[in-house]
Fold CUB domain-containing protein.
Amino acid sequence: MEVKRIFKICIIHILMSAIFALDAVQINDKSSGYISKNDTDNRLGRKTQFPIGLSSTSDFFKRRIDSSWNQTAERNPRLTILRLMSPLSNTDNCQSSSGLVGSCISAQDCIKRGGRGVETCAWGLGVCCVHMSSCDSTSNANVTYFTSPGYPNTWSSTSGVCTFTIKPKLFSSICQLRLDFEDFYITGPKAGICSTDILTVTGQDLNNIVPVICGTNTGQHMYVQVGSSTGPFRITVTTSRESEERKWRIRVTQIPCGSGALAPAHCLQYLTGAVGRFQSFNFGNIKSPEENTYFLNMNYAICIRKEASMCGATFTADSDFNVSALQSTLNCSSDYLSFGTSRQCGTIPKENLASIRLANTGPMIVTFVSDDKQTTGNTGTGANVGDTGFSFKYTQFSCSSGM
């Protein structure tokens, strides 16, 4: 793939050099300031002498030019041609030095689409166009950041509903949305239930259950299945009348059908790489002991892509394990974390929890399940305080190391 990309870039630069070498520095129509299609054909067709043995424009290039004339003519003809020939693409993502992800497009297109050019890309031919949205906004960008009002400052609204809508350009071409909670804190759960502040996702496939979450979830992510839905897809943060400081920045990425970035079906979370880490939602919430719990009524899969030449993974707890804080129930029938067919539950200090090895020929799947009951049976202050959840690191091992 990299060789093909380099070859494409070389061809692009050859063609660009050819255009600048033409006598048509006055390529525009002097009377109107626009370039005509016939003029383009004359200057880029068979009569044009291209360097390095290029005697004519490729069919691919001609098709791109022909299709472009269905759109509004640009006032700068040279930029029009450069955009057609440059390695800018609506589907090519870019990343700024600050970590923001956007699309590498022309500065003019970025402004038209309501984005913000944060840095140049494609050797200065375009800008990394980042889309930031907040309450009551809609976006069709490949990547959009949904932020709390006034982000990065905290938002202390007493109550309200903040909704962000995703409308893909072509619904049938998008199969998943990935939500990355780059910075996320809203009021946490009370006794395992999000009753004060709530984040919900709607519009996904009917058989795709996306859990309601709250609390601290920076670094978490979700995959949302949307392939058979017509939307609209909405992310909504609902806050109570209690005055709390909240803030969030969620990166929303549209994933096309057939993309290698798609997560396997029924995986709420999907991890790649030979090493990694995963935690229960709201893990490590230090706002208050009552809020530092996982949620009730959870049932989701954490899937791990098996990398090339790898045959499994070793899982090690990097924090105390608290899933059902009382003594382990028979066969972990209540709340549990399963590695394949092996269930873990109870309260176990991390130094006492042996590493777990998962090796098979199929996918590596970790499943978390919680019921609708509190461990302690309490409903007031201190209820479910011990159910802090889990945090694990994994390291994949090679097939040559033995299973």
Notes: The longest strand covers residues 174-185. Residues 2-21 form the longest helix (20 residues).
